[in-house]
Inverse folding.
C-alpha cells in the first residue's frame, strides 16, 4: 500500500468514526453501563487509583467522549483537559458539567506544547485511532519527563469458555442490545468489530515501547475483557 493510499484510508476511517460517534451521543453513557453490566465504572476507578494523589496535576483525557473519566479525575483534584474529535460528545459533557476545558481535535495530532501534562489518559478510545503510532509519539512529547500514559481498553479473553462466551456476546448480544436501545445497529456492530480486531495486549505493549516509552505495565481486568496499560515516559 502506498503512503498516499494509506493516508486516504486513514482519513476516510476517521471521518466514518467521527460521524458514528456524533450519531450515538444520546444514551451513550447509559448504554456503556448496560452493555458492560456496570463494570466499566470499576475499571475507570482502577485506572484512577494508579494515578495516586492529584495535587492539581495536569491531565489530558484523550478521546474523552462526554467526559465520564475526566469527571472522576476532576473530583479527585486533577486539572483535566478533555479532548475528543466529536463536538457533540464534548458539548454533551460540557452541558452535564462533566467537562470544564474541552478541546475538539484529532488525538493523533495533539495541539499542545511539549511537556504539558503529568498524565495522559485514554479510556476505550485507542482502538478507534487508525494511526495510533502518531498518537503514541504525540503523547510522548506532550508528557512531562517522568509522566505517564494510562490506557484503558476493551480486549479479548484468550482461552477457554470465557473466550467463547465473550466472543458470542461481542458478535450477537452487544450489537443487538446496543442497536435496539440506540436505533444505531451499525454503530454497535462496528464497535463490536473493533474489539475483536484490535491488537492483543502483548502487541500493543510492544508498539508503545517501540514508540519511545521506557516501560509498560499491563494489568488485565475481568478475565481479560479489559486491560490497563501504564506507560512511563523516560
Amino acid at each position: 500500500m502506498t503512503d498516499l493510499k494509506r493516508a486516504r484510508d486513514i482519513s476516510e476511517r476517521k471521518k466514518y468514526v467521527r460521524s458514528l460517534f456524533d450519531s450515538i451521543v444520546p444514551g451513550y453513557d447509559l448504554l456503556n453501563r448496560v452493555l458492560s453490566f456496570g463494570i466499566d465504572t470499576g475499571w475507570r476507578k482502577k485506572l484512577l487509583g494508579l494515578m495516586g494523589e492529584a495535587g492539581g496535576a495536569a491531565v489530558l483525557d484523550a478521546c474523552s467522549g462526554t467526559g465520564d473519566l475526566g469527571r472522576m479525575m476532576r473530583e479527585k483534584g486533577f486539572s483535566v483537559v478533555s479532548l475528543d474529535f466529536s463536538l457533540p460528545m464534548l458539548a454533551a459533557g460540557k452541558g452535564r458539567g462533566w467537562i470544564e476545558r474541552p478541546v475538539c481535535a484529532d488525538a493523533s495530532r495533539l495541539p499542545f506544547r511539549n511537556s504539558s501534562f503529568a498524565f495522559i489518559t485514554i479510556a476505550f478510545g485507542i482502538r478507534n485511532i487508525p494511526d495510533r503510532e502518531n498518537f503514541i509519539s504525540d503523547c510522548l512529547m506532550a508528557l512531562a519527563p517522568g509522566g505517564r500514559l494510562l490506557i484503558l481498553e476493551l480486549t479479548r479473553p484468550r482461552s477457554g469458555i470465557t473466550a467463547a462466551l465473550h466472543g458470542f456476546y461481542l458478535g450477537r448480544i452487544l450489537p443487538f442490545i446496543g442497536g435496539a436501545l440506540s436505533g444505531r445497529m451499525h454503530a454497535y456492530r462496528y464497535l463490536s468489530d473493533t474489539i475483536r480486531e484490535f491488537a492483543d495486549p502483548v502487541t500493543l505493549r510492544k508498539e508503545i515501547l517501540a514508540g519511545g516509552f521506557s516501560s509498560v505495565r499491563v494489568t488485565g481486568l475481568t478475565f481479560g475483557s479489559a486491560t490497563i496499560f501504564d506507560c512511563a515516559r523516560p
Remarks:
- The chain has a mean pLDDT of 92.
